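Please, is this right?
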Amino acid sequence: MSEERPTSDAAQEEADEVRATDADAWAKACAEDLAAEKARRRTQYGTPPGSAAEELRKLVDAVADKLSGLQSPVLGAVASGTAQQMVNQVVQQAKAAVEPVIERNPAVFDHLAAAGSELLAAYRSAVEAQERRWTARDGRPRDEGTGPGEHIDLD
């Protein structure tokens, strides 16, 4: 009986190795499919937006670049140079203030973006419900309030 034990252990090890190989092949195939799908979507829709923190960083950089490039035709050449230096200084101070916040709390911006989306969805739902009530043509009085008021006819 002692001889049967090692062969069953060997068979078990071989079976475990086959399962591991199958699992690795499955994982590899899934990863390849996912990569192909991402490439297809990137080709079709363009590069997807980054995280909210990355998008905020891009916005700050774009605004800073735009403000730095503004030229004031109203001011003279000397005053324009001074004004340009002041704008550049303010832009650099703003970037210096925003960058550490973005670096320390990138998840906060994702949560704020999600909360904004939820608020927008709630607002849309409320507006659509109100519009349905306003446009309803069933002959009922329009006052659907819950307060103890009386209907006043303005005719």
Q: What stands out?
A: The chain is about 75% helix and 0% strand.
